[in-house]
Each structure stands twice: as structure tokens, then as C-alpha cells.
Write a structure and sequence with these properties.
Elements lengths: L2 H17 L5 H8 E9 L4 E4 L1 H15 E15 L8 E13 L12 E13 L2 E9 L1 H7 L31 H22 L12 H6 L2 E8 L7 E2 L1 H15 E6 L4 E5 L2 E5 L4 E5 L12 E3 L1 E8 L2 E9 L1 H6 L5 H8 L2
Parallel strand pairs: 1-6, 7-15
Antiparallel strand pairs: 1-2, 3-4, 4-5, 5-6, 7-8, 9-12, 10-11, 11-14, 12-13, 14-15
Helix pairs in contact: 1-2, 2-3
Length: about 350
């Protein structure tokens, strides 16, 4: 599959979705998507198969709730999956879905104001058809826009998150292959650094004496880590350690890496997603919550490379699914509170 052709398929698909109505969304799918489409969405949607299921369960309700819904991408890139798997090109888009929040969505109360649903979407294209999708979105951030506070205060801060500081994340045209290879190699090296330090025990000591030394290998000191709502964003290596890395490593035990479905890079941008990426045991205190049973994290990471180090990282975690596996269904609790 040609990368430029796959990009154009996804761009045309996005444009058609921007112009469609709830009743016509299936006709958009008929033009761009295979009938046996595999669609992965965050809690409460999970895995759906086929265009009718995706239309009925996700896109139609979303379009009914958000008037004049438009996609505002900040990052767009594509390449072949660097991992062994099915053929095709993965096209990655990240930004916000913006609309007028006019009807309740998943029991989140409508505001009749602009709402920004933060998203990251991976689409695999084969023979000019979308055959597989992973759609991540930040529902907790949408709750905050509606005036709700579903979780204890987070360690970082959350806002309508900006795109890249360099404003060059929309790679609609072909990019230099060598630059993409550098970005992918750096992402892989960073993943190796995590494994060399966070899983260490009394037998296998961490490679680096301090977290600062670990992160300095692959990250600029003024790194930006745009975390999901419930955790929040941080700035600089020191604040990242204080506001995310230390709480994550102290309060989540028995960390197991399950692998990724797709990992790719183009130009100075790259990223991956897993289903799930990690399995962990909450030890108490993470996100201000008590000890809980073992649970999974489905995660997206999108990166911007600046020179020989990473400068920005946008993260999506299916926090609602992670909590639901521990017996805390935020959406069900919200529904009960509103009845």
C-alpha cells in the first residue's frame, strides 16, 4: 500500500465525516471502510466489528450529541507498521473533535457550548479501504468541560491541549525516510530505557542511578508531557518525575508489558498503541484511589523528536476502562447520580 494513497483515503474519510449527519454516517463508511471493519474504542465502547455496529454504538450518538462536529487535527503522519503484523499502512491523526455540546453524551450533561473532545486515531488502510481503527478519546476531560469532577485532584494539570510547539505536525505530504527512521530508533531506545529501570528489583539493579539520568538519555530537559485527564500534563524532566513518573512507579506494582499493536514514525513524529499495553496492580494512592485488583492500561503515545532527543509526548490512556476493571464504573455512577 502506497503511503501517500493511504493518507489521502483517511483525509477524504475525515472530510466526509465532518460533512455528514447522524442518519448518513453509514453511507460514509460504505465509501471508505470494509464491512468487517475492526474498530477499537475506549470504555464503554471497547471492540466493535462491522460498519453498522460502529455507526449505531459510537458515531451516530456522538453526532447526535455534538452539533457541527469538526475535526481539528494537530498531528497527522503515516507509515508501515514497524512491528510484525497484518499488511497495510497505518495513518495516525491526533487533535480535537470540536462541536456544540447540545445533547447529553454517555450521561455527561450537555453544556450548549463549544466542547473539545481530545482524540488520537490509528487507521490501517489496505487497497484504499480502512480495515482497522483504534479510536482513543479523553472522556474525563469532557466531563471537566461539563463541570464534573469524577476523580480526585490530579498531580499534573489539564487543559485543552495544544499541538506541537513547532506547528509542523500535519505531514500531509511525503517525508524524508531517514528522519522517520531516526524518530523510530529514538522511540525504541526510550522504550528500552523504561524496561532497564522501572522493572528492576534487588537482583537486577536499575541501569541509571537517578530518574533524571534515565530520562536525559532520550529527552530534552524542557520536555512537554501532555498526559490524559486524571493524571495531567507536566513540563521539564524534574516536574515529569515528580508529577507522573514517581506516582506511577510507586503506586502501581507488578508491571507487565503486553506489547503494541502498531508502532511507526514519519519525519519527526511517531507513536504507538497497545490493546492493552500494560497490566498493573494498584498499590493504593494512584490517582488518589485505594488499592485495587490487577487491571489493564490501553495507551497511545505520540512523540515529537527535536534533533537527537524527544521534545513532546501526547498520551491517551483508557482510564475509565482501567478503573472499571477495579470495580469503579465512572459512567454508571454518573448515570445513577443523574436519575
Amino acid at each position: 500500500m502506497n503511503i501517500d494513497s493511504a493518507k489521502q483515503v483517511v483525509r477524504n474519510y475525515f472530510l466526509a465525516l465532518d460533512k455528514t449527519t447522524p442518519g448518513a454516517v453509514e453511507s460514509v463508511f460504505d465509501r471508505f471502510v470494509e464491512k468487517d471493519w475492526c474498530w477499537r474504542g475506549m470504555h464503554p465502547f471497547h471492540e466493535l466489528y462491522g460498519t453498522q455496529a460502529v455507526a449505531k454504538t459510537f458515531w451516530r450518538p456522538l453526532l447526535e450529541s455534538f452539533g457541527h462536529l469538526r475535526r481539528r487535527p494537530d498531528v497527522f503522519f503515516a507509515n508501515h507498521n514497524s512491528l510484525e503484523g497484518e499488511p497495510g499502512v497505518w495513518v495516525v491523526s491526533m487533535g480535537h473533535l470540536m462541536g456544540l455540546f447540545d445533547q447529553d453524551f454517555l450521561h455527561i450533561p450537555a453544556t450548549r457550548k463549544i466542547a473539545m473532545l481530545r482524540y488520537a486515531e490509528f487507521n490501517r488502510v489496505v487497497d484504499d479501504r480502512i480495515v482497522e481503527t483504534a479510536m482513543f478519546f479523553d472522556l474525563i476531560h469532557l466531563m471537566h468541560q461539563a463541570g464534573l469532577q469524577p476523580l480526585p485532584p490530579q498531580t499534573g494539570v489539564h487543559m485543552v491541549q495544544p499541538g506541537p510547539a513547532t506547528h509542523d505536525g500535519l505531514l500531509y505530504e511525503s517525508s524524508n525516510n531517514e528522519e522517520g527512521e531516526k524518530t523510530l530508533a529514538l522511540i525504541n531506545r526510550m522504550i528500552g530505557d523504561i524496561a532497564a529501570n522501572s522493572n528492576a528489583d534487588e537482583i537486577t539493579q536499575p541501569r541509571d542511578a537517578t530518574p533524571q539520568q534515565e530520562l536525559a538519555r532520550c529527552w530534552h530537559d524542557d520536555m512537554l508531557w501532555w498526559g490524559p485527564d486524571g493524571i495531567g500534563a507536566t513540563y521539564t524532566i524534574d516536574r515529569y518525575i515528580e508529577q507522573h513518573q514517581q506516582p506511577f512507579r510507586r503506586h502501581l506494582g507488578s508491571r507487565e508489558f503486553n506489547g503494541h499493536v502498531a508502532r511507526l514514525a514519519e519525519g519527526h513524529y511517531g507513536g504507538f498503541f497497545g490493546w492493552p499495553n500494560l497490566s498493573l496492580t494498584p498499590l493504593g494512592g494512584y490517582m488518589g484511589l485505594p488499592k485495587g485488583p490487577r487491571a489493564d492500561m490501553r495507551v497511545v503515545d505520540i512523540y515529537r523528536r527535536d534533533g537527537d532527543k524527544l521534545a513532546e509526548n501526547w498520551i491517551f490512556i483508557d482510564v475509565l476502562h482501567f478503573l472499571d476493571m477495579q470495580g469503579l464504573n465512572i459512567l454508571q455512577r454518573l448515570a445513577e447520580q443523574r436519575t
